[in-house]
Write a structure and sequence with these properties.
The complex is a heterodimer. Chain A is of the alpha+beta class. Chain A is built from four helices and nine strands. In chain A, the strands form two sheets. In chain A, strands 5, 6, 7, 8 and 9 form a five-stranded antiparallel sheet that branches. The model of chain A has no long low-confidence stretch (mean pLDDT 95). Chain B is α/β, with parallel strands linked by helices. Chain B has three domains: 178 residues, 3-Layer(aba) Sandwich (Rossmann fold); 161 residues, 3-Layer(aba) Sandwich (Rossmann fold), CATH 3.40.50.1220; 177 residues, Thiamin diphosphate (ThDP)-binding fold, Pyr/PP domains (Rossmann fold, 3-Layer(aba) Sandwich). Chain B is globular and about 70 Å long. Classes of the chains: A alpha+beta, B alpha/beta. The complex binds thiamine diphosphate and magnesium ion (MG).
Chain lengths: 161, 564
């Protein structure tokens, strides 16, 4: 079972290594991780996707809460959250395939951000499923390089974590 | 310096001023290049500094000081090798939740990351073994960081905090202003238990006929012994303790059933297995306690009182969790409880106590049995602070000494650090000069920090070390005997050193006992001398620690010597 944790932390040097070292030391698996500063410049937000049963996730949450620099941990997965990932995909392209790739990108509301004689780079934003779907479709042309961010998530409605 | 006022000082002096503000009176440490500015300022200060002979000992001494007094211990080292030498001591304190603050020198800020001479990333190294740590970036942060460090180390679930001080920062002058309070939005330990949960616990207790209280080190660190005993007496429940919980209730208390777990008392293990309610206080269901988890206390409901929410339901499912300081929670719980219907249960336990007493047999005439030595110490040094190393002697000290007051049993339970005892005893004696302090040691463990003989002699710290000299790394030998076909691979250390001469070489008192009749007089002479002393007791070399739960077994499958 996958869980998305929103972890608010002090925006200080070394905090990310405290968090990641906790995961490796305690043997928890991280699927993805994304960090950035929040609306408050003193606070960063780490979005961590972990998998494990409820017991594991409860332990992860409690252990994270024990870190002095961790301000708050919320499990925000599921229906009530908007989740996004971003990927940049460099696809092999030539005169014959370019049109089809553009078409696929359009269907996914992805953007072509770079074009070269033998390749095109597609930027896609969406939830995990959408990113996976376009990746699958583009594979037939030959993916030269793929880079993706970790997932970020925000709760729907006016509620804050 | 008064609160609110400011004063121009350099970083090193600021640290010392802040330590004084925190009520620190003693430091254990060892100097070096990157901490010289600190030592330079220390020269003019009233703080007592005990110069150890190895930084590991400084950390253990700070730990022993903390455990014996309840105050936060402080150790100091230089960067690089000095700091890495502290690591075992910090890890030991971390595993046993002991409040210490470690100050380390660091290379100047502009050299950090350059593999400079004597640079080690000590904040990185100690990340998983400190409650928190700091690399000071700016001298002006010093007051806040020191204040936070002591607050974090000593509150909630206590633990070690490290402050890494680059050398250039120690020299920077600034206006010192010590903050009155700490503001840490990410750290707010729960102190009082939830009233609703406490009432639920009281309901569980009211329903129970076979309750048992399982007390751990948290009872000692929150000074909750009086409340623990009151709880037991009010509801009429037996009390068992973990290794760390020893001394939280007097050994001779009629409701005490001794230590439980791998080398626990048979009747303690039987009682926990047959109980219908476990009231766990400041204990964490460690694997040495529970044995095979699936068979642990099959019929018991569990109330778990702990200051660390992460301990609750970590190893075992708990029915009534209460997060809070043991003392506070017990205080409020006591208001809601009354006597259980447990007379029959107590009867049964007393029967077990008679049937399966803790005991040993004389293996051959005239040989000194190690358990006998502990009994002699118990008689000769009532209510002494007992510190141990790690091995068989540690278990015998846990089983056979008669503890009376809290904070009189100091041992490395979580990490099991050989070499802990002697420096920790030194720290305990510095903190509690009024108490007799006995380090119960093995011949192997003592050699891990024997250099501290120089420290205790130079500083006139009269701790008595009693070595149960069996010529073996006995605990490992015992496992080899029982589970590896008596193949004593690399565990014989006979003829290592003449401990009496070693003591004398350092200027300490050295005594030897080889016959049972010599044990008591030697111990008494050592204590009476008022000097640092070693009593080398030649004991039966193949005695084993019993009873014993074989690894992987349920804890009621506990065996005596004859059953092995
Ligand atoms: C630093 C360290 N190294 C190794 C061990 C593993 N170990 C546990 S008990 C023990 C033997 C201890 O021997 P001794 O101090 O003579 O005590 P005895 O068991 O003989 O009483 C060893 C090697 C340990 N606990 N700590
Ligand atoms: Mg030995």
């Amino acid at each position: 079972m996958k869980h998305t944790l929103a972890v608010l932390v002090e925006n200080k040097a070394g905090v990310l290594s405290r968090v990641s070292s906790l995961f490796s030391r305690r043997g928890y698996n991280i699927d993805s991780l994304a960090v950035g500063v929040t609306e408050d410049p003193d606070i960063s937000r780490i979005t961590i996707v972990v998998h494990g049963d409820d017991h594991v996730v409860e332990q992860v949450t409690k252990q994270l809460n024990k870190l002095i620099d961790v301000i708050k941990v919320s499990d925000i997965g599921g229906e009530e959250a908007v989740e996004r990932e971003l990927a940049l995909i460099k696809v092999a392209a030539d005169a014959n395939t370019r049109a089809e790739i553009i078409q696929i990108a359009n269907i996914f509301r992805a953007r072509i951000v770079d074009v070269a004689p033998k390749s095109m780079t597609v930027e896609i934003t969406g939830d995990e499923g959408k990113v996976q779907a376009i990746e699958k479709l583009l594979r037939q042309f030959g993916i030269k390089e793929l880079v993706r961010t970790g997932k970020i998530a925000i709760v729907r409605g006016s509620k804050k974590v | 310096m008064t609160t609110g006022s400011t004063e121009k000082v350099n970083g090193a002096r600021a640290v010392i001023k802040c330590l004084e503000k925190e009520g620190v009176d003693t430091l254990f440490g060892y100097p070096g290049g990157q901490i010289i500015p600190f030592y330079n300022e220390l020269y003019d200060s009233d703080l007592r500094h005990i110069l150890v002979r190895h930084e590991q000992a400084a950390a253990h001494a700070a730990d022993g000081y903390a455990r014996a007094t309840g105050k936060t211990g402080v150790c100091v080292s230089t960067s690089g090798p000095g700091a890495t030498n502290l690591v075992t001591g910090i890890a030991t304190a971390y595993m046993d939740s002991v409040p210490i603050v470690a100050l380390t020198g660091q290379v100047p800020k502009f050299l950090i990351g350059n593999d400079a001479f004597q640079e080690a990333d000590i904040t990185g190294i100690t990340l998983p073994i400190t409650k928190h740590n700091y690399l000071v970036q700016d001298a002006e942060e010093i007051p806040r960081i020191v204040k936070e460090a002591f607050h974090i180390a000593s509150t909630g679930r206590p633990g070690p905090v490290l402050i890494d001080l680059p050398k250039d920062i120690q020299n920077v002058e600034f206006d010192l202003h010590y903050p009155d309070k700490v503001e840490l939005r990410g750290y707010k330990p729960t102190f009082k238990g939830n009233t609703q949960q406490i009432k639920r616990a009281a309901e569980e207790i009211a329903k129970s006929c076979r309750p048992i209280i399982y007390a751990g080190g948290g009872v000692i660190s929150s000074n909750a012994s009086a409340e623990l005993v009151e709880l037991a007496e009010t509801i009429l429940a037996p009390v068992t303790t973990t290794l760390m919980g020893i001394s939280s209730i007097p050994t001779e208390h009629p409701l005490y059933v001794g230590m439980l777990g791998m080398h626990g008392c048979k009747y303690a293990n039987y009682a926990i297995q047959e109980s219908d309610l476990i009231i766990a206080v400041g204990a964490r269901f460690d694997d040495r306690v529970t044995g095979k988890l699936e068979s642990f206390a099959p019929n018991a409901r569990i109330i778990h009182i702990d200051v660390d929410p992460a301990e609750i339901s970590k190893n075992i499912k708990v029915h009534v969790p209460i997060v809070g300081d043991a003392k506070q929670v017990l205080k409020s719980l006591i208001k809601y409880i009354k006597r259980c219907n447990s007379a029959e249960w107590i009867e049964k336990i007393n029967q077990w106590k008679k049937e399966y007493p803790l005991g040993y047999s004389q293996m051959s005439p005239d040989v000194v049995m190690p358990q006998f030595v502990i009994e002699q110490i118990a008689e000769a040094c009532k209510d002494a602070i007992i510190v141990t190393e790690v091995g068989q002697h540690q278990m015998w000290a846990a089983q056979y000494f008669k503890y009376i007051t809290p904070r009189t049993f100091l041992t490395s339970g979580g990490l099991g650090t050989m070499g802990y005892g002697f420096p920790a005893a030194m720290g305990a004696k510095v903190g509690r000069p009024d108490k007799t302090v006995i380090n119960i040691s093995g011949d192997g463990s003592f050699q891990m920090n024997s250099q501290e003989l120089a420290t205790v002699v130079q500083n006139d710290i009269p701790v008595v070390t009693v070595i149960l000299n069996n010529g073996y790394l006995g605990m490992v030998r015992q496992w080899q005997e029982l589970f590896y076909d008596r193949r004593y691979s690399c565990t014989c250390i006979k003829g290592s050193v003449d401990f009496v001469k070693l003591a004398e070489a350092y200027g300490a008192l050295g005594l030897r006992a080889e016959k049972p009749s010599e044990v008591r007089p030697a111990i008494e002479e050592a204590v009476r001398s008022g000097r640092p002393a070693i009593v080398d007791v030649i004991v039966e070399c193949e005695a084993n620690v019993y009873p014993m739960v074989p690894a992987g077994a349920a804890i009621n499958e506990i065996l005596d010597q004859e059953e092995q």
